[in-house]
Amino acid sequence: MAVTRMYAFRGCPRSAESLPTIAGMRITSRGHIFHQSRGIHGTGYALCLECGRAEPMLPDDSLPEVFKNPHYKLRRAREDGGAACAGSGTAWKIKQGITLGHEIWTDIFELQIKTEAGIWLHRRRAAMTLAVALRDALAESIGVQATELGCDIKEVRVDNEPARYSILIFDRYAAGYASGAERHLGELFHNARKHLDCPVHCDSACPHCILDFDQRFDADDLDRHAALEVLSDDWLNNLRLPDEYAYFGSSSRIENQHLAEAIWHAVTREGFTSVRLYTDGTPESWDLGTSPLRELAYRLAGQDVSVDIVMPECSIRNLDDADRHLLASLADHPNICLSTIGASHRCGNGWLLAEALGMPAKRWAVDDKAALVFGLLWSRSVGPLITAEQIAATSGKRLVVETLRPQQIDTSDREVEIHHELDGPLQGLGKRFWLHLAEKHAGTNDLLSNKNDEIRLISYRDRYLFTPLSVAILVEVVSGLRDTVGTDRWDVSEVKIITTERRSAGENMAKNKLWSDWPQTTVRDQVLQAAFQYVGLYSLVHIADTSSTGHGRMFEVTWSSGKKLTMRLDQGISYWRTAYNNIRQAGHFDLHNNEIQSQGQSLAELRIDIEGSQLPTQLFLKVR
Ligand SMILES: [Zn+2]
Ligand SMILES: [Zn+2]
């Protein structure tokens, strides 16, 4: 049958990171395949509009036999009896020469190959043969019948370059297999090559090597020798990981996903039920509250996966109270445990980052030890993420949570967890914040309600204070405190803000949003002061470097009685974000407006709903 397929992609093309010079690929799960058919004779179909019956036109463009006489309806209802279709006698109801099509949305894996000679694959027979061999190899890797997958080729032109062929492998039943191709790239070509090596040494193609059950291509179109020229030994050798990246020996391969995705895949698709996450670095370099490790651990634990967070022994000894609280509350989850090891595991030139335990285990490693630091950038590295299936490392020493939880010197100290309790309009957040804390912490309540105690000094220390939203929240929290105690008990000459000049790493790429960074931090400083000034407060921004700001986020209130309320926030005021229910435009903020005063005013008056993040934030309060 003359079937034409047309393909359309949604989503961006990208090159395979692991195949930088020899191939390009893209994968979509919203691929659009349009099957179009002009009937066995290529002259189209005759179609009855009344009942939907369609028959191929004859080679001479004449009406098929069925329609030359009265025909039965396509679907005959019992009550119709033997009656002919009403369309039979009416010429205009029988449309002639129709091209039929049907379309499906499915996964498509598109691959372009550059040959050893450095030119894109342009030979049709080689392309078709490779399509069949790669399809068969992929089915084998995934563990499904080859009939689940279809393959095809497509001629493409990029700019003014000569035409080349894309190889397409797609799901025949939209089962989502083709999008998994990326995971098997490492072995795909080697396995395809095996399919091309015919055990009976046939001339071009035979059922022993590449049989296209699909009949998509004529047997004459297939030529394993043409395909073998492309998948030559040298070409395949180019695919091998350079030795320096073979952290796990010869079975090492590049992990094409981010670590969290890869682990998630192992857990949800491959049945792993136990995961180890490795950390390193000194507590001063840690930032537990914002670390993606924490979120990943909770997410996995929520799926009933047991999670072991492995830390260096020496770091545990030097933890401050806030970190002890955070770790202890992580380990309060029945599926999360903590353990320690003497030193991080080396794997070849790399560092062990995570393991999914099993026989064998799935392991991941990176080139840079800094990626193990238990902070915001955990698992991030410039070098590739390398994975392999191997025996897991021996387990570390299990930490008993109760030894970790800080001994409270003063029983009045309090750890307060906030999740969605304060969600709502930004205006009023400050008052809600202090009322909530007063409810949870007797020490705070005493200070706030003592009519004879005045507030003298306020300071807030936070390394990450870069976005208009953080500034707006800070102004709310400080002015909310003033509203709570009343101006009579407010004797604050200046609000001291200690922060840094720029993010230590990780650019914030958002543009002109409440959650973007100001292009220059000097503008941030001025707008912050203008916003405080607008609500009648004088503030002073003190810029420090990351080491002297410390890794904690601290809000301190000093009272006329000499008492000091110290509040440590694990994620700082940046914990709150714009709520999902805001209209889209609500997130807009013009960072390039040079009117400092008007930027400050609009932040102080900002009307927007805010909400807590996915995980709760923890505050540690004490009064001394
Ligand atoms: Zn009909
Ligand atoms: Zn053969």
Automatic annotation (TrEMBL):
Name of this chain's protein: MrfA-like Zn-binding domain-containing protein
The organism of origin for this protein: mine drainage metagenome
Domain MrfA-like Zn-binding: 131-210
